[in-house]
Amino acid sequence: MMVPLDPMGPPIVNGGGGAGGGGGPGRGRQTGPAEASGGISTISIATGGGNASFQRTDDEYRNVLMRNTTVRKYAEDDSNGEASTCGRILIFLSWVLVVLTMPFSLLVCFKVVQEYERAVIFRLGRLVQGGAKGPGIFFILPCIDAYARVDLRTRTYDVPPQEVLTKDSVTVSVDAVVYYRVSNATVSIANVENAHHSTRLLAQTTLRNTMGTRHLHEILSERMTISGSMQLSLDEATEAWGIKVERVEIKDVRLPVQLQRAMAAEAEAAREARAKVIAAEGEQKASRALREASEVIGDSPAALQLRYLQTLNTISAEKNSTIVFPLPIDILTYFMKSKESYEASHSHS
């Protein structure tokens, strides 16, 4: 028994009883999957009185699919044809109305859009061929045409501060600015309900997702790189909405107060450590210079006197109350020699 199958649903059999007897109509159901073996499809059907099996080739199954597809296509064509016929009638009646109410109808039929605007026209609910109209004057039919104005100028969206948990588990508050514009007026009206609202929500989500994959030091030091990656991600996602994201800028990154204090203490300690290292290196270099100077002065006794006079000159140049009495080195040498001779005479006696 050959039973035609609906490829979109389970087979149904209305007929007599099966091989086991039992008259009367019975409703069958598919009890096993079709098994392809050598181009043959085997399907088992359960009827009211037993099981009925039959075989169908792949060509027959393909013919059934083609026949059902053709039927659906013809049904769609019939519905489109009826809608097209009704549309032509309405368009004709609209033109008759325009002619009968001339010239008052021209006030309703002619519209103007600015240089930065485009008009997307719908006629009987369908987009008019030719894309968006404008800038300038364009014509619509009364009662059957509706149009939407689309502004092509760049818009600025200030993303509100977003609480983000960074990759190294630090909570920060980040806000940004997004610059975008409508690149395709028709797509922005036909493909999305509210392109601007959708873009703004996506900008907030993208900001949180992007910051969540970065460490804190990357967020603070690589703002330009993060802004560029956000711009590419937003532009790719909003292309299907007719939106072009031109630029994304991160405004501010706010850290918790305790974290700010900890970072300030860490930076201060690092600066103090560097200052101590620099001071130690300066003292080391100064000691080396003094050693070299002492060696030079030791080779020339007159150099010490010149250094002494230079020091006096430096002190006298400053306006202070210090009084300096220069004492020649030779006088001290004379007293030292006298003392040594006195001690020597007393020791012989």
Automatic annotation (TrEMBL):
Chain segments carrying region Disordered: 1-37
Q: List, alphabetically, the Pfam families matched.
A: Band_7
InterPro entries referenced in this protein's UniProt entry, alphabetically? Band-7_stomatin-like (IPR043202), Band_7 (IPR001107), Band_7/SPFH_dom_sf (IPR036013), Band_7/stomatin-like_CS (IPR018080), Stomatin_HflK_fam (IPR001972)
**Residue spans crossing the bilayer:** 89-113
The main place the protein resides is membrane
Q: Which residues form the Band domain?
A: 108-267
Q: Where in the cell is it found?
A: Membrane
Which keywords belong to this entry? Membrane, Transmembrane, Transmembrane helix
Report the superkingdom from the record. Answer: Eukaryota
**Gene3D superfamilies per the UniProt record, alphabetical:** 6.10.250.2090, Band 7 domain (3.30.479.30)
Give the Gly residues compositional bias ranges.
14-29
Q: Which family does it belong to?
A: Belongs to the band 7/mec-2 family.
The name on file for this protein is Band 7 domain-containing protein
Q: Which organism is it from?
A: Aedes albopictus (Asian tiger mosquito)
